[in-house]
Amino acid sequence: DGGITQSPKYLFRKEGQNVTLSCEQNLNHDAMYWYRQDPGQGLRLIYYSQIVNDFQKGDIAEGYSVSREKKESFPLTVTSAQKNPTAFYLCASRHASGLNYEQYFGPGTRLTVT
Amino acid sequence: GENVEQHPSTLSVQEGDSAVIKCTYSDSASNYFPWYKQELGKGPQLIIDIRSNVGEKKDQRIAVTLNKTAKHFSLHITETQPEDSAVYFCAAKANSGYALNFGKGTSLLVTP
Fold this sequence. Notes:
The complex is a heterodimer of chains A (114) and B (112). With 114 residues, chain A is mainly beta. Chain A contains no helices and 11 strands. Chain A has strands at residues 4-7, 10-13, 19-25, 31-37, 43-51, 54-57, 64-66, 76-78, 87-94, 104-105, 109-113. The radius of gyration of chain A is 13 Å and the shape is globular. With 112 residues, chain B is an all-beta fold. Chain B has strands at 4-7, 10-14, 19-25, 32-38, 45-51, 56-59, 62-67, 72-77, 86-93, 100-102, 106-111. The interface between A and B is medium-sized, with 29 and 28 residues.
């Protein structure tokens, strides 16, 4: 069963702690993305990676870090430097061949920091 | 960067009626415009998309139209059903890594 998995679904952390969100895909997609969603807002791009061992900052990268050591995995770390980390985090992937633009999303992780 | 505006923010229709959601974009170089449906607590699901070389695309009860000159595109849902109730997002392809710039979403409620 192919798809994108994100774990955990809900995550709770104390302020000042770093936390890592998992994103795994078995679609053999090349590109992966992290978006943040806040209530009443659209999705905003945090980081993206088009190939293994390479990633680029999106519009709101401050306070976040990523790695792309394997094609199927793109974990996101929310650091203590992120001023307002409570949000719904969505991972997406895309098969980067030719003019293929379709992005497919995982189920999301809801992070609550208190 | 690309700016995507979406209207209305909320829309309530009766079952069987049509629903229309409109979006505008700012970057004339954008060439891909997907629509996503998001149910509560879930990730967005791609429902239809359109590229800049066509003006309209249909898939059963869903259609999308694109006006490149005016830089706006719309989602049309006909014969709405209660299960169409969800938040709908429009998006436009950005230049950075083929990421997407999203509108703020439209909460659609279809009442029986």
